[in-house]
Amino acid sequence: MMFQDKLINSHPYIKYIIVTAVFFLVLLIDLQFIIFTSRTINLLIRVVYFGIMALGFNMLLGYAGQISLGHAAYMGLGAYLTAYFSNHMGWNFMIILLLSGLIPMALGIILGLVALRMERLYLAIATLGLGVTGQMIFQEWRAFTRGFSGIRLERPEILGFAFNNSRHFLMLITVILLLVIILTYNFSRSRTGRALSAMRDSEYASQSLGISLFKYKLLAFAASSFYVGIAGSLYAYAERYVHPSTWGVELSLDMLAMVVIGGLASIGGSLVGAGFLVLVPRLTAATPVLADITNMNYILTGLAMILVIKYMPYGIYTTIDLKLIQPYLMGRSGENFRYQDLKKESDS
Question: Which domain holds residue 105?
Answer without folding.
Answer: 13-250
